[in-house]
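Supplementary Methods, section 5.1.

A reviewer requested that the exact input to the structure prediction be made available. We therefore reproduce it here, unchanged from the version used in the analyses.
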Amino acid sequence: MKTKLLAAAGLLALFVTQNVSAQSLEKLNWFNEPEKWEIPNKNTFKMFVPAKTDYWRISHYGFTVDDAPFYYGNYGGEFEVKVKITGAYVTTFDQMGIMLRVDHENWIKAGVEFVNGKQNVSAVVTHKTSDWSVVELDKAPKSIWMKAVRKLDAVEIFYSLDDKKYTMIRTCWFKDNCPVMVGLVGACPDGKGFEAVFEDFKVTQTPDQRRLDWAKKQPN
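The structure derived from this sequence is encoded token-by-token as follows.
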């Protein structure tokens, strides 16, 4: 019993410690750094998404692109990532949101994609080839919140209009037991670029489910 309690206490302490730690925007890394970006305060990140940039692999269109700006940190295990996004969308396929990336063949991007004058909640999941899920919004909110939760070998993707009620738009397979690049992404495949604002970006590590299950099975 003592062993189980110590294991559980250790997991809880780890969770509490990591849950209260905030991301430092200044310490993130660039993949395809854009010309214009800034961190005006500790909770806000802005960039001008450059023209003719995107992430996509093969499916439907027959081409592969991997050249849009992505500002990220590295995380292992299970976690929740959340951010508030606000975009000055102009041209069809202007997009911004969060990205989870293992490598150039395995990644997820989820956020808002502007299509035919409408904001759409969008998720592109790529395992060698890309697919696209999209939900058109009735109205054009100033901002939305995006959230992704990595659990074992899956990721759940949510959006919210008020940071209170979250709606799940996708559950997909995602490689587990490997580090993941997690961060902020924007793309502008067809336009001249646009301004993207990200606020309150946070990654919260959660206790590994396999380890919790193991602790429960230990003898008293």
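The chain has one domain: 2-207. These observations are discussed further in the main text.
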